[in-house]
Every structure is written in structure tokens, then in C-alpha cells.
Design a protein that fits this description.
Layout (H helix, E strand, L loop, with lengths): L1 H16 L10 E6 L4 H15 L1 E6 L3 E5 L15 E8 L2 E2 H13 L3 E6 L3 E2 L8 E2 L34 H6 L6 E2 L5 H16 L4 E4 L7 H10 L15 E4 L20 E3 L1 H11 L23 E3 L22 H13 L4 E6 L40 H13 L4 E6 L4 E6 L3 E6 L6 E6 L5 E4 L6 E2 L2 E2 L3 E4 L4 E6 L7 E5 L5
Parallel strand pairs: 1-2, 1-14, 2-6, 6-10, 10-11, 11-12, 12-13, 13-14
Antiparallel strand pairs: 3-4, 3-8, 4-5, 7-9, 15-16, 16-17, 17-24, 18-23, 19-22, 20-21
Helix pairs in contact: 2-3, 5-6, 8-9
């Protein structure tokens, strides 16, 4: 009994450590560079993410997956979620290029988190398709020689079709993908070997795909067996960060997100669903005054907060009408609120343009992913959206860095779709989500007297404002104006934007 009592605090400490994203001090927010090549990610860390204060990058899956010949060269995005092996080879690059990216990003204070897919292996529906690295699976017979896995390493063949039955969700095949049995020591061993290889290259952690479809006890055992992070980039004894895909929006299904918070962070899908609903006008934003657990969200230290991701921006994963880059004004307002409000570990999406929900990333006629080109105004070309390069978003990442550790103060609302609040004496934001009505109010900001540059309409540059400016009076009050006709529906000032 005494040994057990001594062990429990140690296990609890590990669980807490696995919720730490290991950001370099003074940084925040992960950006999902969806389908980017490793060489482009490395360059982006050095030229933009590091200088702008971003904390990390989530990559697309880096392990070998099916290359679907019937769809070549367009390659649907979900091709990456058809695992063939755990070899590090993808359309983003090979293992050497991956290692170079991780090193270069770590060197400028930007951490790397890999989207890992070990709930399953590729589906039998695609016949004789070959892996992107040339390995040949036999999914019809549940044989994956490049791992190797055989039929005895999988659950019985059955479809996931009853979300009121936890065993059905966790033991059957999601969309026909062959469902691995993670309770087997051999399967755990192969998964841990894969994660350890990524750790050896210097990654900070993992986004665990389809965690909802695996038993919490199996995942806890797998995470606990993964090596500490590389001492080349992290202090000795540092545990990997795990954030897990668990879609639990309604709270009425058998599998609950709270089952997974004891040993890692969970992707809080309710966050983007409810915040999108509010800024779309379906639930007045004045109710956001108690945003967080008061809205049924997970505890802040257990939540990955985001508006959209690669699934729900394509109407997958539930949550209703999710704001994306396609409705830019409302989307930027929702992202700005997320980055201004003290809740969760924040992640922003960086997309490519698409009209077809199956469409893969921009590519040439041979199926090679196009470079992410950078325009003179810092936006992206070649079909890449790069929301993280929109000034309203990266300036709010800087705002979040500035106000870190402060609480919400000086809340104001008009009882409807206009709100404002401060973050201690470090920042102040206002939002006008009321169509055809101007926001014109003199409000208490909590900031020292002076002139400040609005971080939404512009920036502070060379001692002047490229957008609007706000004058804070000696008593901390300021006249705040957001016209309904403006391109943006928000305003933000911080002590770092003071002239």
C-alpha cells in the first residue's frame, strides 16, 4: 500500500507534464500548417513564426500513407489518414528533411507537434494502392508488412455505427479503416517505437488523431512508455505534450472528453462550435462574459482551444456552422476573441483554398505540393490562404503574449452584440457584431494615459499607426469607435502598441 501511495503522486506529475506544450517563454499559440512541406515549415519558422511570437507548429501526419492512383495527381487531403507504415515519408518530405525542419524551428523557439495516426491502418476499399514510400500493404487481409502488423493485431471487422456504445466506438472500424488493438503489448511497442523516433528528432509533442476511438487506459499506457523529449532542445526529464482528438460536442454520447483529460489535453470542439454560433448572431455575444467552464467547456488547463480545423471546415466532425476563412470578417472576430480571452491552449488554422471538400493541397501536374510563396504584403500565394499571416491574427498572437498572466477586467456590453473588456493594465479589446449599428462608446480601458495603435486595423510601425489610433485619458477611459461599415468588427490595443 505504501508503494502505491508513493507511486500515485509520480503518476499525477507525469499527467500534468504531458499537458505542458513546452513553449518558449513569452510565446503562445500553435499554428496548423496543414499539408505544408517540411522545407516550407522550416523557412516559415525562421522568417515569420519566430519573429511574430508564435509558439509552435502542428504538422500533417508524417508517416507513410496510401498514394491513391485513381485520384493522382490531386491527392485528397484525407489520403494522409490512411496509414501504411510508420516510416517517415510523405508528400511533405523524407526523414532527413523532417529532422532538418524540427531542428531549425526549435532553434528559433518554435516547437513542432506531429499529427499521429495510430488508431488504425489504411482501409481495404482502395484495393491495390501503394504507400507513398513504395511499401505495399494488403488491407483486405489486415497485413501491413512494413510495420509489420498481421490480422491478429486488429479488432474484429465491424463498422462504427453506434455512438451510444463505447465498445463499438473503440473496437470497430471508423470509415472502414482497419482498427488496431492497442491493448496488445506488441501493438503498443510498435506505436511507441514510432513516437520515440519522432521524439529523437526533437519534436515537443503530438496531436493524437481519433483518440476517441481508443480506450483511455491503452492511450495512458502508450504515452507513459514514450521517451522523455530530446535533451538537445529540452531540459532533462521533459515529458512529451499530448493533445487528443475527442469530439464530444453534445455530451450525449457514450465516450466523454473528460475520460481523456487525466493524462493529456483534449481538443475542445465545443469551443469553435459555440463561439462560431455566437459571432454568427445566433447567441448574442454579451453572454460571453463567463466564457469557459460556465459554457460547459473543459477546464482551461485541459483544453486545446480553436475555431476551425481541417475536418470541421469541411463539415466533418460536427459542431454545426463553423466559421472559416470563407467568412473572413466574422472569422477574424472569433479568432481575435479567442486570442484575447484567457482560456486554453490556443491553435489557429492555416489553410489552402478549396471548393471541393476532398481537394488536396495546391500541387503541380505531377502531384508535387507547390511551394508556399510569399507576396510583398506578407500574404501567401500559390493557392495557400495562410490565415496565420493575416495581420489581425498575428497581431492578436502578439496581444496574447503581452497580456499573459492578467485577468479579465472592465467588462462592458450593450446587452446584445457589442462587447469590450480589458486584460489587467496590459490590453483592451472591443467587438461590434451588431449588423448595421455603429459601436461608439467611451469606456474604461485600464491602460495608462497615451496614444495607442489599434492592432486590428493596422500595426505600430516606426513610431506611428498604420491603422486607427486610440487616445487613453488620464483616468484610463477612451473613446472607442467601430463602424459597422469597417472591414473589421474588432479593435485591440495593448501596452506594446502605445506610441
Amino acid at each position: 500500500m505504501r508503494a502505491l501511495l508513493l507511486l500515485l503522486p509520480a503518476l499525477a506529475a507525469v499527467a500534468v507534464a504531458q499537458k505542458n506544450p513546452h513553449w518558449v517563454g513569452g510565446r503562445n499559440t500553435i499554428v496548423h500548417l496543414f499539408e505544408w512541406k517540411f522545407s516550407d515549415i522550416a523557412a516559415e519558422c525562421e522568417r515569420f513564426l519566430g519573429p511574430m511570437g508564435y509558439a509552435g507548429v502542428q504538422t500533417s501526419p508524417v508517416n507513410e500513407y496510401l498514394s491513391l492512383p485513381y485520384n493522382n495527381p490531386s491527392h485528397p487531403w484525407w489520403e494522409r489518414y490512411q496509414p501504411v507504415s510508420y516510416n517517415i515519408i510523405s508528400r511533405s518530405g523524407n526523414e532527413d528533411q523532417f529532422a532538418d525542419m524540427v531542428r531549425r524551428c526549435n532553434n528559433v523557439g518554435v516547437r513542432i507537434y506531429v499529427d499521429v495516426t495510430f488508431n488504425d491502418m489504411c482501409a481495404a476499399a482502395f484495393g491495390n494502392a501503394v504507400g507513398i514510400g513504395g511499401d505495399v500493404p494488403d488491407p483486405s487481409n489486415k497485413r501491413y508488412p512494413a510495420v509489420p502488423y498481421g490480422p491478429d493485431n486488429f479488432h474484429s471487422t465491424c463498422p462504427v455505427n453506434n455512438y451510444q456504445n463505447g465498445d463499438n466506438v473503440r473496437q470497430c472500424e471508423l470509415d472502414g479503416l482497419r482498427d488496431l488493438d492497442q491493448s496488445q503489448p506488441y501493438v503498443r511497442q510498435k506505436i511507441v517505437e514510432h513516437l520515440n523516433r519522432l521524439v529523437s528528432h526533437g519534436v515537443a509533442g503530438f496531436r493524437v488523431d481519433a483518440a476517441k476511438h481508443m480506450y483511455p487506459s491503452d492511450l495512458q499506457a502508450i504515452y507513459g512508455a514514450v521517451n522523455d523529449l530530446s535533451t538537445e532542445f529540452f531540459p532533462s526529464g521533459t515529458r512529451p505534450f499530448f493533445y487528443q482528438e475527442v469530439i464530444d460536442i453534445t455530451g450525449t454520447e457514450a465516450v466523454k472528453s473528460s475520460e481523456y483529460t487525466g493524462f493529456g489535453v483534449v481538443t475542445e470542439f465545443k469551443y469553435g462550435a459555440k463561439l462560431s454560433d455566437a459571432f454568427l448572431g445566433n447567441n448574442p455575444i454579451h453572454w460571453l462574459k463567463n466564457w469557459g467552464t460556465g459554457w460547459g467547456l473543459l477546464p482551461s488547463d485541459s483544453a486545446l482551444a480553436f475555431i476551425d480545423n481541417h475536418d470541421n471546415q469541411r463539415n466533418n466532425g460536427g459542431g454545426g456552422d463553423i466559421l472559416t476563412y470563407k467568412r473572413a470578417k466574422l472569422y477574424k472576430m472569433a479568432i481575435s476573441f479567442m486570442l484575447a480571452w484567457p482560456y486554453g491552449i490556443t491553435r489557429v488554422m492555416s489553410s489552402y483554398y478549396f471548393d471541393n471538400n476532398n481537394a488536396g493541397p495546391p500541387s503541380d501536374g505531377n502531384g508535387n505540393i507547390l511551394d508556399v510563396s510569399i507576396n510583398s504584403d506578407n500574404t501567401c500565394g500559390n493557392g495557400w490562404v495562410c490565415e496565420h499571416r493575416w495581420s489581425q491574427i498575428y497581431n492578436m498572437v502578439g496581444f496574447r503574449n503581452t497580456v499573459e498572466g492578467t485577468s479579465v477586467t472592465n467588462w462592458w456590453d450593450n446587452g446584445n452584440q457589442q462587447i469590450a473588456f480589458g486584460r489587467g493594465n496590459a490590453g483592451f479589446v472591443a467587438f461590434n457584431d451588431q449588423y448595421n449599428t455603429d459601436f461608439k462608446q467611451t469606456l474604461q480601458t485600464g491602460l495608462p494615459q497615451g496614444d495607442y495603435c489599434d492592432l486590428i486595423s493596422g500595426s505600430k510601425s516606426n513610431g506611428r499607426c498604420t491603422g486607427k489610433s486610440v487616445t487613453v485619458n488620464g483616468d484610463g477611459s477612451a473613446y472607442i469607435e467601430i463602424l459597422s461599415s469597417e472591414n473589421d468588427g474588432a479593435l485591440a490595443i495593448s501596452r506594446d502598441s502605445k506610441l
